[in-house]
Amino acid sequence: MSRYLFDNSAPQASGRFSALETCYDPVSRRQLELTGLAPGWRCLEVGGGGGSLGDWLGERVGPDGEVTITDIDPRWAEHGPQRPPHVRLLRHDIVTDPLPHDTYDLIHARLVLLHLPERLRVLDRLVTALRPGGRLLLEEFDCGWTPVLAAPDEASAALFERVEAALHSQVEKAGADPLWGRRVLGAMAGAGLTDLTATTYAESWPGGGPGIALHGVNIKQTADRLRADGITDPELTAFQALLQDPTFVVNSYPLISAHGRRPHPEATPR
Ligand SMILES: C[S@@+](CC[C@H](N)C(=O)[O-])C[C@H]1O[C@@H](n2cnc3c(N)ncnc32)[C@H](O)[C@@H]1O
């Protein structure tokens, strides 16, 4: 049973999607292009969030192709542009709801499997849903490397690290794996995919910028849990103020884009 910590019913979800889209959509679009994406492809965008990448895939595959955008709670993607008939949005739980077999040319999921305790089972399901030769692109954070790159003083850096550590502990308690980014390629190999590659992207996030806002919404949405874990209200207030200070700079979450192909049956060793 999934216990997604940052569920989309919270008002912070829209801030999360705009931070992710601003910082990572250009990276994801480049990685999607590198799969060979072409008009006519049949694509699945899993856990599509705000829907931006699914809509972009729809433009790239054109009316001869097909894009299905899924989410366990698609309310934010419903606010998107009027979609053409070849792009559909589905309420769908990737853990439990039916998925067709041998169907997709490309499946993409960004920051979805990281949150799912059943991530290895879901990975197997995604592989089965690909047509032989089809491509899987999973993009996941490695939350274990977000060093403070500049800070007004040592206490500020220590505060950031303490609050982040408390958040990661909550994320783990909910069944997520904050280090999944460094494990995903190995898991894809274990699931039988071939032609595996991984590319990692990170950038600096200064206070007041669009990227660091992700920390702000994540901490706001989990504030009650963090308080229960010993983070105080003055610390939460100071943390939010720090995120607005341009002299405070952190490394973004590194995004690992892992790509692989489902082998053709004749290529599978006996
Ligand atoms: C961190 S957000 C990422 C959204 C989007 N992929 C992006 O990168 O901008 C994770 C998304 O996965 C969705 N999600 C969580 N559990 C899911 C499940 N079991 N099946 C489908 N979607 C799920 C959430 O509702 C949320 O929209």
UniProtKB/TrEMBL annotation:
It holds the Pfam family Methyltransf_12. InterPro entries: Methyltransf_12 (IPR013217), SAM-dependent_MTases_sf (IPR029063). The keyword Glycoprotein does not apply. Residues 44-136 form the Methyltransferase type domain. GO terms for biological process: methylation. Keywords: Methyltransferase, Transferase. Gene3D superfamilies: Vaccinia Virus protein VP39 (3.40.50.150). GO terms for molecular function: methyltransferase activity. It comes from the Bacteria. This is Methyltransferase domain-containing protein. It comes from Streptomyces coacervatus. The lineage of its organism: Bacteria, Bacillati, Actinomycetota, Actinomycetes, Kitasatosporales.
